[in-house]
Fold this protein.
Amino acid sequence: MEYRLSDIHPDATLGKNVTIENFVTIQADVVIGDGTWVGPHVTIMSGSRIGKNCQIFTNAVIGADSQDRKKAYQQTYVEVGDDTVIREFVTLNRGTLGNTIIGAHVLLMAYVHVAHDCIIEDHVIVANATQLAGHVVLQDHAVIGGMAAIHQFMRIGSYSMVGSQSIVRKDVPPFIKVAHEPLRYAGINSVALQRHGFSQEQCDYIHHIYRCIYQSNLSLASALKMIEEEIKSSQEKQIILDFIRNSSRGIVKKSNLVPVHVSGI
């Protein structure tokens, strides 16, 4: 381990083969896992827990107090999973009601802000200058385009993709793409699904479910009832239904496509 002109608190815990570049500040009550690289001018504040083999680039700030006016009534943390990349000027704030959690194999590109109590699950990509308000959840394999703004308490489903410069005011269900202003359904995220091992049959099945939701004349409640009763059971179906039924803010709007007749498969 080589520290070179950095300020490392003696109560910080650094794993094996951690590299600390110049002008880094690491406060007390910080844990950094084996093999992690911390670039120059990074600040890691008390309450930060960094996993193994992470990369943290210049001027990132991890573990700062939240910008929420309500105070945390207990010690909270920022937790970063293994093999995660945090690029230049990223800011990760500690929680107020719980911990701010970043999963494993996550890529946060330059200037991303992750506010208090957010949860980013594994294999998520968040592109440059995206801003996450408090209590946002990004589920596994979600991709967020650059300069997106995500309102507090929003949920972005697994394997979904949010277009660049989008303003997210409603939940985004799993497996789909969303874009435009106001944000609308733009089809299923078929390319990403196939890249992650989904078969063409699975993609067609998911597409059929979303045609019921977004491209029929049915109300959302009626569409969900039809999906439940007429479409054969599968893990994908259950993930979609559970996500939508647990949405407290509602889901993104229908597309402008002409409604089509749908039936069970």
User: Anything to note?
Assistant: Residues 200-214 form the longest helix (15 residues). DSSP finds four helices and 27 strands in the chain.
